[in-house]
Amino acid sequence: MGSADDGNSSYGQKAFKRSKSHFADRVTADGRDGWPVEAGRYRLVVSRACPWASRAVISRRLLGLEGTLCMAIADPIQDDRSWRFTLDPDDRDPVLGIRYLSEAYDKRESDYPGGVSVPALVDVPSGKLVTNDYQQLTLDLATEWTALHRRGAPDLYPRALRDEIDTVMAEVYEDVNNGVYRTGFATGQEEYEEACAGVFRRLDLLTSRLARQRYLVGDTLTEADIRLFTTLVRFDAVYHGHFKCNRWKLAENEVLWAYVRDLYQTPGFGDTVDFDHIKRHYYQVHTGINPTGIVPLGPDLAGWLTPHHRAELGGRPFGDGTPPEPPPPQEQVPAQGRP
Q1: DSSP 3-state assignment of 83?
Q2: Residue 181 among the catalytic residues
Q3: Is 50 a catalytic residue?
Q4: Is-contact 105 131, C-beta < 8 A?
Q5: For the segment 32-59, what is each residue's pLDDT rounded down to a tens digit?
Q6: Which one from 11, 42, 50, 70 is the annotated catalytic residue?
Q7: Do the Cβ atoms of 19 and 133 come closer than 8 Å?
Q8: Cα separation of 23 and 40, whole Å?
Q9: pLDDT tens per residue across span 179-191
């Protein structure tokens, strides 16, 4: 997410089409693409504002990779030169030594299509981008990085359920993950109405599914839940108003509101969410659809910590595993970003 190649003012001014990930190398256990899994070699560059990057942040936490895969957090307010490291001293990433993520892209290839997006995995020794393939990255963290997983790490992509997980994730991606963007960046009424209807049609189907089971697939957390969560957690804060996905608020849907609160209160999910970063990014960066840059005061975040009663449906969040440890101090969400 977050390509800035056309300028922030272009959002909502032309038909929306999500760029495919141009850099699709994989970091694997056998190193078949030239990038072997190796502790300390790579840096994960993310924005806490971005739902695509947040998938990787959550997966890294759940799998216990904090000590072996270091993470850089970009400023939620990007400019036309791409994601920037203005949250760090001297406005530079302390590990890569760069001011803009685009510098790692440029070291890999010049005049690349698709712009600069997060999440991005960067090779620390060379400073080169390895991959910006947000769809494959988290699957590889779950399946290729197993030698570095913490003791008790959950199986987020269990082999026996992969066909069902893939089907659910594809539907969620088309109608929900990407559907909110097609709605928010629509340039005409018909285009908007079609995309918005698709979002809520899928949310209605997910409501029926989750009314009878705690998690999307099986009785434990999987990659499918991570991918739905990162959109739902942003829904009332930005998609309902900013993207005009306003048939109803998530908090008005008893099932989905309880489901997302259940995940939010699960270690590894809510402790990665920064509502301050989320709101400031969407409302201040997308000047094409919010030219004033005004950031709304609401919604009230207090409800995120209220009881959800989802455990009554059964299910074991981490299967035979255990919850992750609390995040290290340098990665904890500041107080202004939490309920």
Answers
A1: coil
A2: yes
A3: yes
A4: no
A5: 999 999 999 999 999 999 999 999 999 9
A6: 50
A7: no
A8: 21
A9: 999 999 999 999 9
